[in-house]
Design a protein that fits this description.
about 25% strand, Jelly Rolls, five-stranded mixed beta sheet, about 25% helix
Length: about 350
């Protein structure tokens, strides 16, 4: 009974740890080499609270001509009913033809609500773009390097040309997609964990855990979810808690908590002489009278064995009498031969 209660308590604690870890928002991190993001057959649709898309390893090693362009088309869907998607380019360095002005490589955003797609190449940094005075007093998003979609389905195209990189030329990008919703209804529990990108403007709200995490999620002047922008052109830092980090930290925390609980249980059992430390652990169903009768029975058996060991041994059988032997030669012929 007691051991069942202990096992139940351990399971409840483990379930609480797992639920608490899963309640924290994660960024899903993918690159254009991942088949979960890019497929030559179909357009992937990804529903998530937060998504980070990177270039992958092969792009910067693009030193020879590919047989075909790398063209990745996917759709990001909002995790909130009636919500939208924010897309912010954290950093981007893609090629443009200096003669024609056309983008050789590009990132393109489009949706049903906007007729013309937004295409980006050259060098873009979220810190620099949102640190300018453009739309400084407006609730409109910064247009350079970001996109705001209100219908909850944002189509994205990432195109990398098969033309090889020139000597010492580097390309790369990192794009963050974040679901948002209207959080003006304070009594709606579904939006209780949301926070406005701009104070007192609760039409665009994201998960409060995405604030001050080293990633620019809100496409507004001043990097509102990070409190301020850096004016230097730099790549943004990695998120403080990526999905891989959370799995590792959660696993280590769970193991530590369970091990501590196990040691505490051992100490309690030993102190109170429970389970294997109990005095009657070998025969838990015996009463005191049963133990006394068993001791008496063992004593009687031991005394009987000792009495048998002290009894005299029977006499050995008499030695066998000497058998009759034939007379010797001297007795038959006393005078010798002849």
């Amino acid at each position: 009974m007691f051991s069942s209660a202990v096992i139940t308590l351990i399971l409840i604690i483990s379930l609480f740890i797992v639920v608490s870890e899963q309640s924290r928002p994660d960024y899903k991190i993918l690159n254009i080499e991942d088949p979960k993001l890019c497929s030559p057959i179909t357009k992937r649709k990804i529903r998530t609270d937060g998504l980070i898309v990177k270039e992958g390893r092969s792009i910067n090693k693009h030193s020879i001509t590919w047989t075909a362009n790398n063209h990745c088309n996917f759709e990001v869907q909002s995790s909130y009913r009636g919500g939208g998607i924010l897309a912010v380019i954290q950093h981007l360095n893609l090629r443009r033809n200096s003669t024609t002005g056309e983008c050789i490589d590009y990132v393109e955003f489009s949706s049903r609500e906007v007729m013309l797609p937004y295409r980006y190449c050259d060098i873009i940094s979220a810190d620099v773009a949102m640190g300018t005075t453009e739309n400084a007093t407006s609730h409109l998003p910064i247009l350079r390097g970001s996109y705001m979609n209100s219908d909850g389905e944002l189509n994205t195209v990432i195109h990398i040309s098969k033309i090889p990189l020139s000597y010492e030329e580097h390309t790369g990008f990192e794009i963050v997609f974040t679901s948002y919703a209207d959080c003006s209804d304070k009594e709606d529990r579904r939006t209780s964990n949301l926070k406005p990108c701009i104070e007192k403007f609760d039409k665009v709200c994201i998960n409060k855990e995405y604030f001050s995490d080293g990633v620019v999620n809100c496409p507004f002047y001043g990097c509102t979810d990070e409190l301020s922008c850096s004016t230097e052109l730099k790549e943004p830092v990695e998120p403080r808690w990526s999905a891989e980090s959370k799995v590792i930290i959660g696993s280590i925390s769970s193991i530590f908590v369970l091990f501590t609980f196990f040691i505490l249980c051992l100490w309690v059992f030993k102190k109170h002489k429970l389970l294997c430390w109990a005095e009657d652990f070998a025969h838990p169903c015996e009463t005191t009278s049963n133990r006394n009768s068993r001791v008496m029975e063992l004593s009687e058996q031991t005394g009987a064995r000792l009495a048998r060991s002290t009894d005299p041994q029977p006499n050995a059988p008499p030695a066998e009498e000497e058998k009759d032997l034939p007379p010797s030669y001297d007795s038959l012929f006393p005078d010798g031969p002849g």
